[in-house]
Structure formats: structure tokens, C-alpha cells
Amino acid sequence: MTSVASTTADGRAPKKDPWELPDVSGMRVGVLGGTGDQGRGLAYRLARSGMAVTIGSRAAERAQQAAEEIGHGVRGADNAECARESDIVIVAVPWEGHAKTIESLREELAGKLVVDCVNPLGFDKKGAYALVPEEGSAAEQAAALLPESRVTAAFHHLSAVLLSDPEVEEIETDVMVLGEVRADCEIVQALAGRIPGMRGVFAGRLRNAHQVESLVANLISVNRRYKAHAGVRLTDI
Questions:
Q1: Which tens digits make up the pLDDT trace of 37-92?
Q2: Confidence (pTM)
Q3: Residue 9 falls within a domain, yes or no?
Q4: Coil, strand or helix: which one is 197?
Q5: Which of the four, 47, 67, 94, 145, has the lowest number of CB atoms within 10 Å?
Q6: Domain Pyrroline-5-carboxylate reductase catalytic N-terminal spans what residues (predicted)?
Q7: Does residue 19 fall inside a structural domain?
Q8: Burial class (CB in 10 A: 0-12, 13-18, 19+), 221
Q9: Residue 135: which of 169, 98, 164 has the closest Cα?
Q10: How far apart are CA 42 and CA 163, in angstroms?
């Protein structure tokens, strides 16, 4: 048997292929806010890819009804049960209820990998515009409120319409993933890659989450002008 050297000729460990991502197929995914458009769409796509998915809502009955409509084995539960039974928890709640929802689930989310995809936006007669939370971003607010969780940020730029459309087989877009621990980001990247057409791309630490979240305001303007469902595709990688 031929052994593979664990170091390079100069004694350094070889660089890891950035596209070498972990197998997440056995992980359980929870979606808080899973009865909203974005949450339902993500739950549908991930369940369709073979992931075990539970959607959460303040009312278990509402979540269970939405889960039946989504199908593909999706379960419905109240937010606390959804958080407890999941390995990865996606936060897809409205910005207005973001802090309150997360704070109320601090115990259930302890030790969990949390993926925040909330976009703090305001709307007026000129259209959508980015809000700046006191902590800097929604993801940083989540990290501040969940000191015992592993918080990342991802899935901000996805069209709920495309996510929920069963006629759309592939969604050609990139998902920018941010976080403090590279291994956690790679899990989220791999999760994004479960959805045909998507790539999960590492995009920096949580301190850079604000501009990723705020880009959604620009995408809304693009979509209104061109009657499209635009996403983001990064070049040269």
C-alpha cells in the first residue's frame, strides 16, 4: 500500500481543497419561521434533496399544517421543539421578531449550529433600504444573543418564489456563507450544495455580514425593474 505524505516537502501541511466539504446528509435541519415564504421554500428544497427537515412556528398546529402542504417528509413543531431536535437551525423569521424569537430559544439553541438568513430591511415609497442593527447585522445580533451557539450567516439572496416552485429543477445561484469557525461554514456550504444549482461559498467572518444582508435591498430593486428573481453568482471560483 502506498502511503500519502501528510506534509509538503518543506514540512508544511498541504492546503485543503476549498471545495472539499463534509457530508451533511445525516444531519437534521430545523427552520424557524418555516411557515413564512422564505422558510417554507428552504424547507421544501432541503427536504426534496433528502434532508430530514422540521419547520417551527410559535403555534405547532400552524407548523404542522404548513409541513403537510410542503410534503417530502417535512415535520411541523413549535419553535422550541424544532430547535431541540435539529442539528442545524436556520433562522428565517421576520426581522421585527428576530431578537425576541432568538432570545426566547437561547437554551434550546445552545450547542447548535445556527444559520441566520434574516435581512434587516425597511421600505418606503422609494423602495427597500438596508437597516443597520445596533450589533452591526442580524447575524451579529444572533451571535450576541446566543453565546453558547455556533452562529453563521447564509441563504440571504434566494428567491422565495423560485425555492417554492416545483417546476424549477435547479436554482443557479451562489450562497455566501459567513462565520467565525471555518468548519461550521463548511457544513453550511455543504448544506447549500445539496440544492441542485447552488454553491456554498465562504465569504468571511460575521463582521462582514451587514453588506451581505443589505445587498438584498439592491436585488429587490433589480427584480422589480426586470421582473425577475435575481440571485448572486460569483465569478472566477
A1: 999 999 999 999 999 999 999 999 999 999 999 999 999 999 999 999 999 999 99
A2: 0.93
A3: no
A4: coil
A5: 94
A6: 28-120
A7: no
A8: middle
A9: 98
A10: 6
Burial class (CB in 10 A: 0-12, 13-18, 19+), 98: buried
Q: Is residue 20 part of a domain?
A: no
Contact 89/115 with Cβ under 8 angstroms? yes
- Pairwise CA distance, residues 55 & 42, whole Å: 10
At residue 15's C-alpha, the angle toward residues 14 and 16, to 5°, is 115
Q: Which structural domain range is residue 72 located in?
A: 28-226
Q: Kindly report each contact of residues 74-81 with a partner whose C-beta sits within 8 Å and lies 24 or more positions away, as own/partner.
A: 74/43, 74/44, 74/47, 76/34, 79/32, 79/104, 79/105, 79/108, 80/56, 80/105, 80/108, 81/54, 81/56
- CATH number of the domain encompassing residue 94: 3.40.50.720
Distance CA 168, CA 172 (A): 10
Number of domains into which the chain is organized: 1
- At CA 145, angle to CA 142 and CA 149, rounded to 5? 75
pLDDT one-digit tens code per residue, 130-184: 999 999 999 999 999 999 999 999 999 999 999 999 999 999 999 999 999 999 9
Amino acid at the residue 220: I
